[in-house]
Write a structure and sequence with these properties.
By secondary structure, the chain is of the alpha/beta class. Helix content is 46%, strand content 16%. The chain is built from nine helices and seven strands, in the order βαβαβαβαβααβαααβ. The protein has a seven-stranded parallel beta sheet, with helices on both faces. Strand 2, helix 2 and strand 3 form a beta-alpha-beta unit. The radius of gyration is 17 Å and the shape is globular.
Length: 248
Amino acid sequence: MKKVALITGGGRGIGAATAKLAAQNGYDVCFSYVSNDEAAAQVVAACEAEGAEALAVKSDVARSDEVATLFEACDARFGRLDLLVNNAGIIGAASSVSKLPDDVLRRTFEVNVFGAFYCARAAIPRMALSAGGTGGVIINISSMAARIGSAHEYVHYAASKGALDSFTIGLSKELGRDGIRVNGIHAGTADTEIHTLSGNPDRPQMVADTSPLGRVGLPLDMAEAVIWLASPKADYITGATLSVSGGL
């Protein structure tokens, strides 16, 4: 049987690039998305063009009941799970901490942190050797913001990704003997629509102008790192977070 990857937030950006690259590398793919049916259908078609089976499930990872439905749909279609990519995330509106609205803070943590916990919690019994699984890989898409703090704009987002980094370390220690590796990606500012949606469309180019490589990060840059970390070439790596940020 082919391996199966479940990718949250797979309808656009880094998630979509990861879904397509996973399909190219021999995975069947299940992914979640929140609202854009057309974009999700395009990702499904791209995966199928690579010879993979693909399933898009409308699901908000901030809701544990919808996460349960997502994993049940993956079970029904594929019957196994080998790779979970906790990619779904939001930046939230730019704001200083002193002016940060309650709803922005709450939603940022619900999606970025709670969603990753809900999905990992669902994946573990499907992967763990002690539960009859064959092992697997969990990869959390974090951000360089967790290192730099993103003062005056996105401290709430940076803090949520800092929590995700701690989650990666702790979870890797819980699951290593159960055949599950857990790693993360410190993504740099990538050229995705997430910045436009948050009201800051020029941010990728602004960051690129200050980076050693001098170019905007692409979703595929992050996806390549995910697929490598999921591969046998990274079999002795767990609890690590790899910087994919153009040198920042």
